[in-house]
Amino acid sequence: MRHRYFFVFVCIVSFTSAFAQHKISGRVVNAQTGEPLPYAKIAIKDQPISLTNIDGSFLIDLKESLAEATFSYVGFSPRTIQLSAATEFIFVRLKPFTETLDAVLLNSEENPANRIIRKAIARRDQNDPEKAVNSFSFRSYNKFLIDNENNRISLETDSTMLEVETIIQTGAAYFSEKISEYRFEKGKDLKEVVLGMKNAGFKKPVYELLSLSVNPFSLYKKDYNIFETEYAGPLSKKAFRNYKFKILDTTNTAQPAFVVYFEPKREQAVAGLEGILYLDTTSFAIQKTKAQLLGAIKLETDQEYEYFEGENLWFPKKQLTRIRPGSGGKDISVFGGVISTGRLQSGGDIISTVLSGNDTEPGLFLTSTTTNYEIQFNSEEKIENPSAQVEIASGAFNPGEEFWQNNRKQPFIFADENLEERVMDLVKEKNVERQIEIKNTITTGYYPVNFWDFDLGKFFKYNNYEGLRLGFGGKTNNRFSDKFNINGYAVYGFKDEVFKYGLGTEISLHKPSGTNLKLNYTSDIIEVGRFNYLQGVNEFSIVEPRFVNINFFYTDKTFSGGLIHRFTSRLNSELQISHSQISNILDYAYIHEGQHLSDYNLSQTTFSFLWRPFGRFLKTPTSDILIEKGYPKFTGQITQAFSGFMNGDFSFIKAGLKIEHEIKRLDRSRTEFILEGNFAIGELPLTHAFHAFPNNGNQTEILKRFSVAGHTSFETMYYNEFFSDRQAMLHVKHQFRPIELNRFMKPEVVLISRHAVGTFKHPEDHANISFNTLDHVYSEAGLEVNNILAGFGLGTAYRYGGYNLPGFKQNFAFKFTFQLKI
Known about the structure:
Number of strands: 49
CATH class of the largest domain: Mainly Beta
Shape: elongated
Mean pLDDT: 84
Largest sheet: 19 strands, mixed
Number of helices: 11
Low-confidence stretches: 1-19, 99-108, 152-161, 166-171, 329-362
Radius of gyration: 32 Å
Number of domains: 3
CATH architecture of the largest domain: Beta Barrel
């Protein structure tokens, strides 16, 4: 088949070579300063108007053997140059206007471009489709590809994430098509339902790529996303803080527009594009946009709008976003990180070698093109399942060639067919699906080997009681069964010389709602006073900083059965019934009805939930995938212990609620808040009370207490110092913008403030142990410098307020910080 395509290609190229257009490149600059003139106009008779790039460069197609080209720019004298087929490159110098004035009048009138932008901002709600109408719907065709320009063959003469990283590093090519239906209702998010999708070469859909923020819907928002990176909006309330504006032209069309050039003011602090806005001269609505970034890469995005007279509204119609290798220079923000020459440095290292310009893939580029059609306004039809922003319709994956022929809104050219075949070969040859599977599984704390996913957190741990804790664990995956899994672990402590283990199963009852039945038995040790949420604590961490210094455990043998259910994409729940046999390891006893009890039974019912009201989700036929966390989020849990039921010895109620919020800013600084409250009443042994997650060793010397800082732990609070039956904690962290010393060292300075308050109603009921209560406010302040090198940093904390101790040493803590990002 490939030989046939190549033969056809050679024949066509040979036949049309005589009629090929001649390409002429060049640059337009200021004749006095040599500075490039961005978006200068190039007019050639009987040809569409062209614009230079932001560096003044251009590439035009000359249709005739001879032609005149007029180069113009606001504030400069136009220049006409004769071009011919012999011309390959021209350097155009435009002179600024020089006029002799009889009188000079000084006034304080603002830049006319600023007046236009101010009016566009004032009318934003009337022009933004998501504000101007009650509802709308449309269909969209998207083509997304990753390719190498050296391989791509075209007969046309017209002018994510983890998965993306794997595809680029391994396959170096990707091709997908997507047909979606979008619906919007005022007060709700824009909802996408994917009707058809194709991932060339993949037996299973790469769902996460569907959630990539590649093209912004419009530029009216405060910030907008291109290739997973937020940029400052040129029509936001802070537009004049982030951008400079200049009028370049006014179009001579049926609906004329101001052509306004915008340029970032604070590139080092806030990511912004450089480009032009076509703003309607009457309504000041966006008619068209063109924006670029030039540096280590070249990012281009174009957007066209269509006018609807009945609604007096310009609506997004076509979008093109492309990333290519650049000529070097400044770093560029993309995919949530920064591409510098040769390498992407990002928070999640989503792409580490995109468009690097190296010898192996010198021409790698990414392109996403979107066409919107069948646009309708004020429909009565309601959005189904609004909590999922992206939903995959049943049967959407590989719906068949007839579907694509009937729905494609862009031509499927020879180059696309050629790329699709190469991608299919590459995906199979380099086993890209397997590599994506491994990376996705590792992010959840497992490593897949055939039908078994090994639990990476079970191989190695260390603490003061068990010493070295070695073992293994994991669960079966879909290769074993997609209806249930078997999970378990076995570990051995070399200091206490005891085996611990667990065994369980999770049975799928209803995949679309995530309803699963869980059965488990564990025989292990648990830290005294630790409160664990069944839902909401699923983030994987190889390093558990506090675990090393814990020395107050109890043995726990628990049989539990539970039901997990997802009410909506944003609300997960779990109901569990359990019976536990508790034995205290240290000399602790709970005084109950005059008896000192070190061993007792607990029968409990627990309900837990995780609610993400502002999260963004992708709903597939079998699961919900979180694509943007969204804040605030809420985690809650309530437990009832029953006396006399299943031999339970005590009756009590425990509850916890945690609220997490995060504010991210365009300058890459962020502020994090965590507020948590715990409450218990009844016959409560110390094993099931609360502590505030202390993380300070009990040694006298500072350096002997040197350890790894935790995320939500009190670094100056000593182990076993405080226990409560009701408490509240507040954690506030502010991370400043990273300090970019070089490509590999970008430390982050973090200020921390933590506070805790609580009480214990009957501390006298707990024998053979002394502890304090948090009746006064416990406070500490901290400073961290994270990511100094390879994820390592340093931190300090100081204890003050109601529980300040005498002497500096007792109040001060010195810590390692470590941030492992997979």
